[in-house]
Amino acid sequence: MISIDSLYKAYNNHHVLNDICLSFKKGEIHGIVGENGAGKTTLFRCISGMESFKGKIEYDKGEIKNSIGFLPTNPYFFSKITGKEYLQLLCNARKIKIGDFKEKNIFDLPLDKYAETYSTGMKKKLALTAILLQNNDVFILDEPFNGVDIHSNIIINQVLSKLKELDKIIILSSHIFSTLHQTCDYLHYLKKGSIERSVDKTNFDSIEKEMQTSGIEARIDRLNLG
Amino acid sequence: MKLYFILLFKRLNRHLKDFGIEPLIAYLIIPGLFYWGSTSFFDKVMYPNYFYMLIGIVTVFIIRYPKHDELIKQHFLLTDFKSIVVINHILLAIPFILFLVFRMYYEEALIVFGMTIFISFIKKPGKFNLTLPTPFFRWPFEFVIGFRKTFWMFLLSYGIAIISINVNNFNLGIFSILSIFFICSMYYSKPDPQFYIWIHDMNPQGFLKHKISIASKYSIVLTFPIFLILSISYIDQMHIALIFSFLGLLYMIMYIVIKYAFLREGVGMFQGIIGVLCILFPPAMLIVIPYFYFKAQRNLNSLLK
Fold first, then answer.
1. Cβ–Cβ below 8 Å for A113 and B131
2. With contact defined as beta carbons under 8 Å apart, do A13 and A29 qualify?
3. Cβ pair A65:B198 closer than 8 A
4. Given CB atoms, is B131 within the 8 Å cutoff of chain A?
5. How far B284 CA lies from chain A's nearest CA (Å)?
6. CA–CA distance, B124 with B141 (Å, rounded to integer)
7. Minimal Cα distance from A114: which residue of B?
């Protein structure tokens, strides 16, 4: 279980996260929703240990950093490194030995080609494959469905179900409500750095409605389209 | 189009400021440096007018950004797009043209100008994406990437080693060994993205040891052919080659620890000066390496546990 207690994060005087209190149990899928700039990625980076913060993040299995598989929104790839070498690098980093990467290539990626030449969706799939091979207990997936084709979306959904079965903790963000409906057990609405609401599956619609009614129409009107 | 060039000027100033130079000072210094460099070139090189002309044309050809051009093409009118590309290229070529005119090489200046216009209308060939195999695939990434970018330099180093035997010059052989370590040091000149450090299940000490061990193994593999070549003629002097290899190895290790000691800044001018000082006075590495090793360890503490 991961417990977040009174987490604050600020850059200079700009407060990005305020008094975040959340808990994630094993075998649960949690979705974090919110507008761009609400603090989702910062929260993920704090949980993973890439950002310093005020407050407490506790993990009952010890050091959380080495149990997390982190999928960034836009994974960065070095130039002149192949897909296979990227997988090798991420496995080496966690001391995982894999003999045949071809067998693990569930998204049929061209592993012998340079990763920098991959499309947005292919890059995401490569980064996801890598963290799946690391045998992590916790998965933080920032926009896992972004730019990914329908077929791969189905695979990702099934992978998430499998991870849930295996008692892994999964925290993800997405702007596509239908995918969150399908995959998540809980949703947390992050607004301006604070958790506005946390709901279980039965109340997902209320969050969707709340986001829809937060002045979207008025904003569109300001464009004077037409 | 006017706004485009105003933004270009603003961006240039921002880059100069990021680099730590006040734009006004840069605009005074850069032309002076260019004049000094060009004059030295004309003083020291044979047929300088032809080579200088070639350098001007190649500069315009190389410094092109297809993605930038594509963006401009998408959003500007076709005539404006063409004008922007031509003006950008002329701005690049103008220092070379002016210097050629100053030296009264009018024909050469005209050729640079003509070629600049011509280059503006041809499409830059796409990136060459053939995957080059590397012997370092087991432990990516520095040597995998570095080898693919600099493999031709190793061929040159091996060539120099062969020449050292042909011309009976052992020093040239030593130079080829040192060149390998120097090239490998350059693989550690850019800071790693945070993510690529964070992923490691190691403490800072283990991480640095791991990086040093991989670099040492792979650089020794790269110098091995030179040792073989040199042993043909200089078997009795191989101990000297080993001493210089050890120094080369220390030099590369110094760059690794400096890289992580300046995690956010990257290997900049200050670190470059340290590198040059250690070439001139190698014993300094005995102080520099431990100092930056501990600094690197402290830096990595926030990302590795």
1. yes
2. no
3. yes
4. yes
5. 33
6. 29
7. B131
Domain map (residue ranges) of chain B: 2-120, 142-300
Assigned token pair, B80: 């404006």
Question: Cβ of A124 under 8 Å from any chain B Cβ?
Answer: no
The shortest C-alpha distance from A113 to chain B (Å) reads: 6
Number of separate helices (H) and strands (E) present in chain A: 8, 9
Nearest chain A residue to B132 by CA: give it. Answer: A80
> CB of A100 within 8 Å of any CB in chain B?
no
The CATH architecture one would assign to domain A2-221 is 3-Layer(aba) Sandwich (3.40)
Q: What is the pLDDT along chain B (305 residues), one digit of tens a residue?
A: 788 899 989 999 998 887 778 888 889 999 999 999 899 889 877 788 888 999 999 888 888 777 788 888 888 888 888 999 999 999 999 999 999 999 999 999 999 999 999 988 887 665 566 888 998 988 889 999 999 989 989 999 999 999 988 888 899 999 999 999 999 999 998 889 999 999 999 999 999 999 999 999 999 999 999 999 999 888 889 999 999 999 999 999 999 999 999 877 666 677 778 888 888 888 999 999 999 999 999 999 988 98
Sequence ranges of the domains in chain A: 2-221
- Give exposure, A8-45, as e/b (b: 16+ Cβ within 10 Å): ebeeeeeebbeebebebebebbbbbbbeeebbbbbbbb
